[in-house]
Amino acid sequence: MNRREFIGLSIVSALLMPARAIAAMWNATAFNAADVEAAGDGLLIVDESPSDAIDITVPRRAENGAIVQVAVNSRIPNTEAIAIFAEKNPTALLANTMFSHGAQPNMVTRIKMAETSDVKIIVKAGNRYFTASKKVVVLENGCGGVSSANEQFKSSMKIRAKQLRHEKAVQVKAIITHPMHTGRGRDEAGQLIAAHFIQHITIKHLNQPAVEMQLGTGISKNPYLTFHLAEAKLGDTVVVEWQDNLGKSGSASTQVIA
User: Fold this and answer.
1) Residue 239's CB: how many other CB atoms inside 10 A?
2) What percent of the chain has pLDDT over 70?
């Protein structure tokens, strides 16, 4: 692999691998890094250039750092991937998303933030990297918290794919029921709860992967996602699949509606 490329899922080879093999490809070096520079090294990112063609929408103030909505749109030609970082989180890299087969380079998700810091975006386009950032003032730490030790894991998913009237694209929205435990939260007795979080999400259009995400522990509980597919049409099938660090997985499908 070229040193200037993101380490991530190979879309073609991943189709031929079982879930355990895909999970093994999760970029532990990058996602376990404690700071942005080390995480960027794990993704083999070099020579970042500031860009005003990266649009970031975040709240100026987050009452609860456990749920901070982030929207990113890249207007950089030939964008291939978008990585999201929170500079002062225990682990800096939150998500690394790759786009293909008509997926537009914009996304919405919800992240956890430990304290006031910049949300940094790095975009890969060809062999170049571009960056932009915005500061979020966090009033309550969202990276720990207390959860119930008796909580039973039961996942589900809601997915919708809708043709946008004023754009030549289909908007895909999904929410996945999942605890997204960081490994730093505690139960009622004060004991650490083991890490349990989604590592991979794939959005397929007509059986072709269009969006491939690798996630860290910094994505909020019950992950929420929005993407846009330029090549999807009314009646087409869209599938969302996920796998987590404990080997659990799920999927849901829908048809594009008007």
Assistant:
1) 18
2) 87
CA distance 199 to 250: 12
What does CATH list as the number for 11-142+151-255?
2.60.40.2470
**Domain extents in the chain:** 11-142+151-255
Residue type present at position 90: P
Per-residue DSSP letters for 62-108? Answer: ES-TT-EEEEEEE-STTEEEEEEEETTSSS-EEEEEEE-TTB-SEEE
Beta-carbon contacts of 13 under 8 Å, excluding residues fewer than 6 positions away, are none
Q: Is the pLDDT of residue 7 over 70?
A: no
Strands (E), the chain: 48-50, 54-57, 61-62, 68-74, 79-86, 93-99, 106-111, 117-125, 128-138, 157-163, 170-176, 198-205, 208-215, 224-229, 237-244, 249-255
Q: What is the mean pLDDT of residues 221-240?
A: 97
* pLDDT digit string, tens, across residues 134-179: 999 999 887 765 566 567 788 899 999 999 988 889 999 999 999 9
C-alpha closest to that of 39 among 86, 5, 4 = 86
Residue 24, token pair as written in the block: 């093994």
Distance CA 169, CA 164 (A): 6
* CA 229 centroid distance within chain: 16
**Of 187 and 11, the one with more pLDDT:** 187
CB 242, CB 218: distance < 8 Å: no
Q: What is the mean pLDDT of the chain?
A: 89
In which band, very low, low, confident or very high, does the pLDDT at 4 lie, cut at 50, 70 and 90? very low
Q: Are 114 and 90 a contacting pair, CB within 8 Å?
A: yes
Q: How far apart are CA 215 and CA 26, in angstroms?
A: 9
Tokens (6 digits) for 258: 């008007």
